[in-house]
Structures are given as C-alpha cells and as structure tokens.
C-alpha cells in the first residue's frame, strides 16, 4: 500500500495562475480532506469529503475548489493563485466512523510569487 | 479564531528530560483528542489519542493527561531522546465531525539535545 500520495512535492506559481494539487489514496477510505500548514497556525482545514460525490467547506475554503468523483482521488484546485496561498498543503484520509485516525500525505510546498 | 490553543511554541530539553506540551480547547462538544507528530519534510502521523472518559493514557514513553473540567490536555514524553525531535500538534474533533475534520493547535517544535 502506498497510503496517501500527493503530487507535486514542490510548485512555484505566479500570481493569477491556476493549478491542481493531486491526492490519491489506496486504502479505500471514505473520508478525505485538505489542510494547509502555515508557521504558528498549525494545520487548517480547507475542504473535506465524506464520500464520492460529497464535498464541503472547511475553515479556510476561499480561493480553492475540490471535487470527489472517485473514492481514491481528491484533487485541490487553486483558481487564481495569490501570494497568501503560499503554504504547505497536506491531503489526508481516514476510514471514518469510529476509526478517526488520519493518514497524511507527504505534502506539497507551494510558493506563489 | 483558534479553538484549540497549544503551548509552548517551541521547547528544548536535554536527553532524558520530560517535555510537556499543553493544549486547551473551548468547544465542549469535542470528544476525541489526538496528538500528531511531524518530522521535517513529512506529513503528520498519529502518535496517541484519548477520549474524555479517561483522565490518562500511556503508550510507551508517551502519555496524555486529560482534564475535562478545565478543558485541557497535555502530552508528556518520558525519557526523551534526540529522535523525538519533531513538531507536535494537538487536535480535537466532535462526534459531528468524526473522522472528517480535526481542529489542530498551533504546533510545538521540540528539540531534544544529546
């Protein structure tokens, strides 16, 4: 099992560009989520999904879109990148229900110039 | 608005010391309190977790202490080792958000000197 796989590992964008961060899991987990990590702010939830076709907003959703067409994949789209979106992005998955353990990917470091 | 407050921001101890990291929460609906450990360049990984029906949980050298009335919980690392140097995050979730959403603290960067 690869677990949670995120691509790319590093990305540099110019202000206004768009891109998609990819996330895939091979554990058949129902729940998937995206967090951003910023110094001194911990991890903040951007969007989450409790199953294929179901998504919802987290704490900091502005400027990001998600979709969940399959159980395995949960891409995060930046519509028009801004310097405030410079961050490290983590995708996570969990079984849901009584098992709340989150499995995280290794992250994508994004810089917006 | 941080619903889970974590302190200290950074901590340096000598090998064998007992670092203690504290967290406080506001939402009384929270009923699951995990700690995650993160090494540089890696994603966080679950270290230990507790539910409010117990006041303490031990797993190896790691112990969570939980005080429901004070809405506080803490992580103690016994006999700390240089390999424990990492960033530690406390977190919380409620039955409503179970498995889908965690609210994280700000993180504590722990350094254990040899």
Describe this entry's structure for a reader:
- The complex is a heterodimer of chains A (113) and B (114).
- Chain A has 113 residues and is an all-beta fold.
- Helix content of chain A is 0%, strand content 51%.
- Chain A is globular, with a radius of gyration of 13 Å.
- The termini of chain A are far apart.
- Chain B is mainly beta and 114 residues long.
- In chain B, strands 2, 4, 5, 9, 10 and 11 form a six-stranded mixed β-sheet that branches. In chain B, strands 1-3-8-7-6 form a five-stranded antiparallel β-sheet, with no helix packed on it.
- Classes of the chains: A mainly beta (113), B mainly beta (114).
- At the A-B interface, strand 4, strand 5 and strand 9 of A face strand 4, strand 5 and strand 10 of B.
Features:
A: 113 residues, mainly beta, 7-stranded mixed β-sheet, globular, B: 114 residues
The number of distinct helices of chain A, counting runs of at least 4 residues, comes to: 0
Oligomer: heterodimer
Number of strands of chain B: 11
Detail the poorly predicted runs of chain B. Answer: none
Order of helical and strand elements of chain B: EEEEEEEEEEE
| Low-confidence sequence ranges of chain A | none
The helix/strand order of chain A is EEEEEEEEEEE
Largest sheet of chain A: 7 strands, mixed
Strand content of chain B: over 45%
């Amino acid at each position: 099992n690869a677990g949670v796989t995120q691509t790319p590992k590093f990305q540099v964008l110019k202000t206004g560009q768009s891109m998609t961060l990819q996330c895939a899991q091979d554990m058949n987990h129902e729940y998937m989520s995206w967090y951003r990590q910023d110094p001194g702010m911990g991890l903040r939830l951007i969007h989450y999904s409790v199953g294929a076709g179901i998504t919802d907003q987290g704490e900091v959703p502005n400027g990001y879109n998600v979709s969940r067409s399959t159980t395995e994949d949960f891409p995060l789209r930046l519509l028009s990148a801004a310097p405030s979106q410079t961050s490290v992005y983590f995708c996570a998955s969990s079984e849901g229900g009584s098992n709340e353990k989150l499995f995280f990917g290794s992250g994508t470091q994004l810089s917006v110039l | 608005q941080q619903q889970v407050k974590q302190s200290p921001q950074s901590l340096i101890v000598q090998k064998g010391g007992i670092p203690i990291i504290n967290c406080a929460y506001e939402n009384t609906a929270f009923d699951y309190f995990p700690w995650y450990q993160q090494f540089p360049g890696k994603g966080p990984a679950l270290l230990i977790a507790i539910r409010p029906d117990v006041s303490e949980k031990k797993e190896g050298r790691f112990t969570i202490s939980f005080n429901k009335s004070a809405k506080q919980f803490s992580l103690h690392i016994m006999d700390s080792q240089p390999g424990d140097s990492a960033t530690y995050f406390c977190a919380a979730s409620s039955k409503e958000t179970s498995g889908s959403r965690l609210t994280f603290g700000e993180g504590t960067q722990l350094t254990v000197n040899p």
